[in-house]
Amino acid sequence: MVWSVLALLLGACATTRASRERGNWRTLGTSVEGRPLRVAQFGHGPRRVLLVGGIHGDEREGRLVAQELPGALLATPGAAARVTLTVLEDANPDGTARGVRHNARRVDLNRNYPAANFTPAADRGRRPLDQPEARLLHDLILRERPELVIVVHSWRGDHFINFDGPGAAIAAAFARRSGYRVKASDDIAPTPGSLGSWVGGTLGVPILTLEFQRGREAWAAWFETKAALLGAVVGD
Length: 236
Ligand SMILES: [Zn+2]
Prior knowledge:
By secondary structure, the chain is of the alpha/beta class. It has helices spanning 2-22, 63-74, 79-82, 93-98, 132-144, 168-178, 195-202, 218-234; strands at residues 26-30, 36-42, 47-52, 83-88, 148-155, 160-164, 181-182, 207-213.
């Protein structure tokens, strides 16, 4: 009897483990227009990392990162035991469907966070988190408490890695492995209410903002940053 109960418990654990390896995609919530924001977890280690596959709908050069990074992580010996990687596939599915930066209410979701530098505007929201997509990601971060957040964007005519919060060493390691240089937030136009300002500045959690070059072919963008992304996720 004891052994059959044990076998059942072990079976349940194995099932949970297996679904983690495959990725248990689920709907976190929905956008203004009712599109799902999909999230999944991979690995089962103590290091918690969150990847956001995109937040500006016209910057999808890095869309393969969310698709390919989990498999690359699980193929790295020992990595699944070290890391729990949470992947939010796309924080702005309405923008992606239209190929535009903003969400369906024309708000820039990367200006809608409760950072000290938030300022209300028609295209930033009247209040922090007044857009459902921004709130869903905000609540996910507070629930998961990642020790690193990585978010994928693209930039006209350049590629680089930017960071907020205590992420200088992680960004430097990323630069070494990818050839992308580190560009400080001070060198970029002010970003009031950005995800980086809130996660890095308010929460004090390191966040990497990965800027692919606009128009870069998606597979090329993935392959040139794969090793650097894996290093950041695993914590090497
Ligand atoms: Zn962007």
